[in-house]
Amino acid sequence: IMLNTLFDKISHRYTPRWLVLLIDIYLTTQSFILAHIIIYGLEFNFKFMYSLPIIIIVSLCCFLLIGSHKGVIRHTGSKDVYTIFLALTLVSILLSILNFIDLYIVSTSYFEIPFSIIIIHFLVSVIILVFSRFVFKILFGIIILNFKPTSRVLIYGAGDSGLITYYALN
Questions:
Q1: Contact 15, 69 (CB under 8 A)
Q2: Alpha-carbon distance 125 to 120, whole Å?
């Protein structure tokens, strides 16, 4: 009974935006590490350590600018996929610009990231962030369905109105 009360209270709330943002930053950072491992294996590179804070800052700024963390997780759809894609595209463009400036204008090479890592980072991040949104949506649905009492409803009509009613009731 205590779990039913807890999930009933949780089901009316949304996931805090700051938590979604932190998860997105964490997953983006992990996908950068994975991209580095795909290219270099487990070879340690000090330039990689300089790049991690830059990845976190650029990702944070782009996610805040685009607002990919503002979507309601339990209603994830194509709009959320688009905002994630847009934010990660902006991250990749900014990382490429920073990489170009570091290599050819400033010539410090502290922030040297091969463009292959930027491309792999983009692809892995898109897949992981979209997949995580849909996994959270499915898990939320399973948890709520198991702890909320359901009632049977008959929808008469097979057209668009019937589907709209079905999705609204779900």
A1: no
A2: 8
